[in-house]
Design goal:
Two copies of one chain form a homodimer. The first copy, chain A, is built from one helix and nine strands; from the N terminus they run E-H-E-E-E-E-E-E-E-E. In chain A, strands 2, 3, 4, 5, 6, 7, 8 and 9 form an eight-stranded mixed β-sheet that branches. In chain A, a hairpin with a 2-residue loop joins strand 2 and strand 3.
Chain lengths: ~120, ~120
Amino acid sequence: MVEKVNLADKLARIHDLWSPKAVGAVNDFHVKLVRLEGEFVWHSHETEDELFLVLQGRLRMQFRDREVVVDPGEFIIVPHQTEHRPVADEEVHVLLLEPGTTVNTGTAGGERTREVEWI
Amino acid sequence: MVEKVNLADKLARIHDLWSPKAVGAVNDFHVKLVRLEGEFVWHSHETEDELFLVLQGRLRMQFRDREVVVDPGEFIIVPHQTEHRPVADEEVHVLLLEPGTTVNTGTAGGERTREVEWI
């Protein structure tokens, strides 16, 4: 049975930062929701492009040579093999769309790597 | 160079109904925007799942045995090979996420089939 998903209801169930939760699958792509605050680690993904759609707050997407500010109602697609670092001065809610194989820290790995849980 | 996309700016450039426009590619998946009003045709997609994220208005997604009402801030994923018909009593703005191969009328084809233009 096909059910709809309410983004606000799902976000209310997320209590940790920088830990994307899966809320939908479109073929082999996953829709994830994540709450961000502070700075993440520099990383890239070997093969996976990654879409960040900002739902609330202001996301600063840093690249090695510049920064793109992404506000609610805007998205940015980070191509694979492109180093990036998301920064959120205040809490930001983001909808991610990416291949299901995507790891949050990409090829950098490390202590901020998270398993993706379905909510 | 990676640029952000503003959904409202793109929607302002769409003047026809039921004609999805591509605004982003995430690997082989496309992000599309579409304005809907009225009833579409019953159709399904052979292999492609299809995500409808409602940005404005109320989408009634009809299935053969029931209907799911999708409001702003909600999405529904229609699995491949599932007959569906989108209905919009008043104008609805939708963000679509689906494989780039997806045709708007699926296997039904017909006069409401549209080529996807990039905007």
